[in-house]
Amino acid sequence: MEEHALNYEKTKELVKSGHQLVVLLGTQNGMHEAASLVQRMAGQLDVLIAVLREKTKQCEQLAAECAYLMNGAAAELNTSWMLHKTMLGAQAALVCIVQGDIKSARDWLEGTTDEAGAELPNDITVAGLQPWFDSQMVSNDGKTGFLTREEAEKAIRAEIPATEAFLREVKSQARQEGAYFVANRMLAAWDAGFIEDTAKNAADIARMILTSTEFMADAPDGDFDRAFADSVLADIAAQLRVGGGA
């Protein structure tokens, strides 16, 4: 962080010096072109500083959220092993109970709770088990009850806004590049004679594909599913069969 801040300060000083040099060169005969060049370079460097600062901030946010996710993944892996151990111990205890060996059943059950995050009060009774159980089923945000897979994912996504924004940016770029790919392939096929159509129609279709990128940001996810295209193609194929065109 300190190194980045230092580099920013040095670059800002360089930009400042560049603007000062522009003023100095502007007062010298025959140096107007040089002054204009330095001014453009200083302006571009100033823009670069802002871009780098924003990208650095984004990377720092992603690193922090990655650490958060790594910690959560490690905790989840640990929990899954504890759950596996608990289920095995419970199964073993049931066998002991069925065979009348209560002492062994108790030993198996106690072994499954060695790493439990909650402790039972020494004076608890059977009647007090349900209230104790309910009091333990509380998350960090104070909510109670079972957390579904969908709710868990939603809660995690809310904690990693920078990662979500980065993934949206990557997805958006990939979709745009996909449109460019389709337009290129379509025009290449037309140019090679594989598509029999007029130059105007080929150009219109290519432009339609390319301009679709302007609407991708606000388009619902369903617009990127090929189901609609498959349905229309199936209808066209059926019409061609009926008309004898296939």
TrEMBL record:
Highest taxon of the lineage: Bacteria
Protein name: Phage protein
Organism: Cronobacter sakazakii (strain ATCC BAA-894) (Enterobacter sakazakii)
